[in-house]
Amino acid sequence: xxxxxxxxxxxxxxxxxxxxxxxxxxxxxxxxxxxxxxxxxxxxxxxxxxxxxxxxxxxxxxxxxxxxxxxxxxxxxxxxxxxxxxxxxxxxxxxxxxxxxxxxxxxxxxxxxxxx
Amino acid sequence: xxxxxxxxxxxxxxxxxxxxxxxxxxxxxxxxxxxxxxxxxxxxxxxxxxxxxxxxxxxxxxxxxxxxxxxxxxxxxxxxxxxxxxxxxxxxxxxxxxxxxxxxxxxxxxxx
Lengths: 116, 112
Fold this sequence. Notes:
The complex is a heterodimer of chains A (116) and B (112). Chain A has 116 residues and is mainly β. Chain A has strands at residues 5-7, 10-13, 19-24, 31-37, 44-50, 53-56, 65-68, 75-79, 88-95, 106-107, 111-115. In chain A, strand 4 and strand 5 form a beta hairpin. With 112 residues, chain B is mainly β. Chain B has strands at residues 4-7, 10-14, 19-25, 29-37, 44-49, 55-58, 61-65, 71-76, 85-93, 101-102, 106-111. In chain B, the strands form two sheets. In chain B, strands 2, 4, 5, 9, 10 and 11 form a six-stranded mixed beta sheet that branches. A five-stranded antiparallel beta sheet of chain B has the order 1-3-8-7-6, with no helix packed on it. In chain B, strand 7 and strand 8 form a beta hairpin. The chains are: A mainly beta (116), B mainly beta (112). Chain A binds chain B through residues 31, 33, 40-45, 48, 55-56, 58-59, 91, 98-102, 104-110, and chain B through 4, 6, 30-31, 33, 41-45, 48, 50, 88, 90, 92, 96-105.
């Protein structure tokens, strides 16, 4: 596609339910990132992939959060046993090459998660 | 851990006035990037600065990277209503060339 595509755009879930957020990066982009953005804040790093390999997951808040990118393209961020504090905008981004200086990062429109 | 502070948090200007936002990092940065996020939109990459003391211009926007590579600024000359949005700085440090730490952003509103 022309840009980074994320789905669903909006998700309301009950506390304790699992949610899966999907990201389809720009075609051919090697690197994929997940960020979380609370209202009035800048994006906060969660995790990073090169191809299918998860290179860094240091930003994942706890073990309820996981991410995968099994074929090096589409990625899924899964939150298990959701809690109200998980409510936020979850943004995916991709770039052509692995984090090279000057490498433009393209953000998707995000998935708004509300846990009630 | 690394922290990136941005000031001011909000700035309201009359159209035609200049605007500046400042970014300070608690650690030396390998590079700094600037993004613009329109209301309801997503962050859009503007520019990356890598060299100490670097200055880059994009039309009415001037970006600077400090000599110590710990601070940066974005200056907009003669603001227009199309400049409305939140401007974020984001830095890489500690040898990472992919993990960006974002500031909280500066929300710019422009009165026509």
